[in-house]
Amino acid sequence: MGIAWLTLFSALLTGLVGSGHCAAMCGGIATGFPAMAPRASWRYVVEPNLGRVLGYAAAGAIAGGIGHGIVDVAALPWLRTALRTGTGLLMIVIGLRLGSAIRATPYSGTAGGLWRVLKPLQRRLLPANSSGRRLALGALWGWMPCGLSTSLLTAAWLQASAANGALTMAVFGLGTMPVMLPLAWSGAQVGRRLLQGGLRAAAGVVVAVGGVVTVAAPWLVAMPALHGPLRLLGCLPV
For residue 136, is it within any domain? Predict the structure, then answer.
């Protein structure tokens, strides 16, 4: 299944506008890395956050790979359309969440159980006195479960492709950077404009509309005039 640009754009918007959720959930972790530095150093800010994006991408690759395996084993012609419809419905849900206040609540369940297995690895990587350790700690940070990242991970699974799943999660992680990097550097509340209700609501509408288009794509193919735009958005094969 080709990468859907609407899904990637939605992932980017979700990361950008949902950064307030990330700041509330992970602010202590973000500001903790610079506190480990013997002196002010950008490495203690950039490397853990880069590792976090890599952790997201790895999780997305695994989820997308599992989805791909299910599609290959089932070999049902309608399954790819069903997965694309599921992606669109999930985008609508994420858009509605973005349009309202996103609560900073952890996600429990399978992801929470996996995190309990991974969490002890943090102690083995301390002190974070090398680039490798900081990247690895950041990657573990990316696996810490929360409702927002798990929603995007579900979208990655629905991509039914390891590469597309990794790309979806990486774009989501990059979207959080404009808030998380300054937060980690200064410990201050930053990016308030990104978190204001008006912009957040507008982003939610864009994501939700993208979800509607994704769901409706199989029916929109009956309109030849829309084939070009739908291919550009990744809703139809090129």
Answer: yes
User: What's the whole-number mean pLDDT along residues 111-121?
Assistant: 71
Alpha carbon 51 to its chain's center? 14
**pLDDT (average), residues 7-24:** 78
Residue at 238 is within a domain? no
Query: Could you tell me if residue 174 is left (phi over 0), alpha (psi between -120 and 50 degrees) or otherwise beta?
Result: alpha
pLDDT of residue 162: 93
Q: How far apart are CA 111 and CA 145, in angstroms?
A: 6
Distance between CA 20 and CA 194 in Å, rounded?
Answer: 8
Q: Are 44 and 33 in contact (CB under 8 A)?
A: yes
Q: How far apart are CA 143 and CA 120, in angstroms?
A: 13
Residue 102 is given by DSSP the state: P
**Total domain count for the chain?**
1
Res 209: pLDDT: 82
Is 70 exceeded by the pLDDT of residue 237?
no
Q: By residue range, what is the domain housing residue 63?
A: 5-232
In terms of Cα–Cα distance, which of 88, 72, 54 is closest to 158? 88
In a domain, 197, yes or no: yes
Break the chain down into helix, strand, coil percent, rounded to 5.
75, 0, 20
Please provide the size of the chain in residues: 238
Provide the whole-model pTM.
0.78
Please give the share of the chain, as a percent, with pLDDT higher than 90: 16
